[in-house]
């Protein structure tokens, strides 16, 4: 399977920042919309470029973490009014389990923190289809020094990713941003979800080969053992075929259904979903939603 989640190295400073990619998925499968798709999972290397986000803080979160709904910017994650340019928006604050080791491995902390932040993003943004958009989750927790001093805080946030998957400065709040649909933040990709390791996100009114469609499929819970790739494909194939046909508005042979699946490692960190895409062989310049049997937009 192709790994599609890379996390930044743990910095030896006051807070650890991890960006939770919506593209933390692996495996490219595809088939025509008409009839039943023929799926095939591809073995490959890492599938996504690293998303580092803004510079890592140089001081701790302090006694009072930022409030839910706070907007933050810059290397120190200063809180600013949301109508001012900023990169992140806090979706939840929490405390990591006291049962974690005194000097935990990074992977152990990720498994405790990232599912919480992904779930917080779903509630804050107002949709279970976050992974079909350009919106991403952040997770912050104490550095090794602050952890040793007894700090166990967790701060979750969201940001909007640009074409390079790095956060872009924006204005306005994202609270409830997906409650009425994905249009403003829908993920369109310049490449092929079924063939490419890394998806490059582009505006949907620019040439693109794929569009993530509503209907992100939950395949289980992160604390459950992950299904086999074959079991995930069996679940994703009919679901995505139906989602894409409903999105396009007709069964047609000139577009494909594709989907991306989690690896065992990303599953334990909260990526227990399949994301469905409608894919074309030639680039289109506008969305395919509701196109029906009309010609593909050139």
Question: What report would you give on this structure?
Answer:
Residues 34-67 are annotated as: Disordered. Residues 34-59 have a biased composition (Polar residues). This is Septum formation. Residues 75-276 form the Septum formation-related domain. It is a single chain. With 298 residues, this protein is an alpha+beta fold. The chain has one domain. It has four helices and 13 strands. It has helices at 106-125, 144-148, 229-248, 264-268, and strands spanning 15-20, 26-32, 71-73, 78-80, 88-95, 135-142, 153-160, 188-189, 201-202, 208-212, 217-218, 256-261, 273-284. A hairpin with a 4-residue loop joins strand 3 and strand 4. The protein starts with 14 loop residues before the first strand and ends in a 14-residue tail after the last strand. Residues 1-26 and 31-59 have low confidence and may be disordered.
Helix run count: 4
Uncertain residue ranges = 1-26, 31-59
Helix content bin: 10-25%
| Beta-strand segment tally | 13
Largest sheet: 7 strands, antiparallel
SSE string, helices as H and strands as E: EEEEEHEHEEEEEHEHE
For the termini, the CA-CA separation is 33 Å
Instruction: Provide the residue-averaged pLDDT.
Output: 80
Counted up, domains total 1
Region (Disordered): 34-67
Protein name: Septum formation
Pfam families: Septum_form
Biased composition (Polar residues): 34-59
Secondary structure: elements and pairs:
Blueprint: E1 15-20, E2 26-32, E3 71-73, E4 78-80, E5 88-95, H1 106-125, E6 135-142, H2 144-148, E7 153-160, E8 188-189, E9 201-202, E10 208-212, E11 217-218, H3 229-248, E12 256-261, H4 264-268, E13 273-284
Antiparallel strand pairs: 1-6, 2-12, 3-4, 3-5, 5-7, 6-7, 8-9, 8-10, 10-13, 11-13, 12-13
